[in-house]
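Board notes, transcribed. Complex of a protein with glutamine.
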Amino acid sequence: MSDSGPTDDVWTVQRILAWTTDYLTKSGVAAARLEAELLCGHARQCPRVRLYTDYDIPMTDTERARMREYVQRRATREPLAYITGKREFYGRNFEVGIGVLIPRPETETLVDLALEQISDDRPSQFAEVGFGSGCITITLAVQKAKCRVTASDISEVCCQYAARNAATYEVADRIQFVHGNGLEAVKLSQTDVRYDGIISNPPYVCDHELQELQPEVAEYEPHDALFSGSDGLDLIRRLIPESLDILKPGGWIGLECDPAQCGEVCRLMTDSGFTKPQIHQDHRNVDRIVTAIKKGNTCADK
Ligand code: GLN
């Protein structure tokens, strides 16, 4: 495969997997074997399970050239999802690339909580701030056939990815992706609408935590989607009061944040006039999501 490996034998799938696992381990990649398999599957354009039945099959020159490029990129700690161009979220693949925050499993908990709020048979309106790949908004629209979502993002690149992902899942007709800043952009695009729910996985990492992030995140993912001031709460602090203006009475808000921020986010919600603030844990059992309800009569159509 390269000068650093033996060249006298045939480069079978098995041998390339072993070599790559070793190389990625030395480059500091934690789940090196799994990632070697995913890259190999991507290079051979086959599902990962196929690798096991193809163990003794030599990889073609084209496949090996692809693999060489992928492995070099991964060894510099470029995220796997940017190399394969996709990441699974809520059981579906979303196209991602440089400039787009990679969907994370903790955000699936946020989606679960939102889905509990949305009727299966009555129309509802949701808003999202910072849609990134579009994974939250699109999942809501796919799971709830009567739900419409207006979502904003300041990144032009994200607008392109999200539009493609919405088209893939055939929900573009119930989604409005707006290019603009925060809830302000949502309000400007639909001035009369009152929302049943507002959802966001906003940037919430403290600026000074840059050094503590994995190189995959710090060096490759969009900083706009990660950092939000000295305590990470700059955007959330704006978002909570602004949400009240456009939510229906009884409307729901759900925000992802850092475990250390959940208490403060509850307080910010209560101070702004929300009721029933609740902290929810993610798939790793750490505090991650805060939800609350706008005071007033619960909407009749909820
Ligand atoms: N949990 C993410 C990370 O640190 C942060 C995502 C976000 O800021 N929304 O990788």
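The pocket of glutamine is lined by residues 104, 201, 203-205, 217, 226 (CB under 6 Å). Strands lie at 86-89, 92-95, 124-129, 147-153, 175-179, 195-200, 247-256, 274-281, 287-294.
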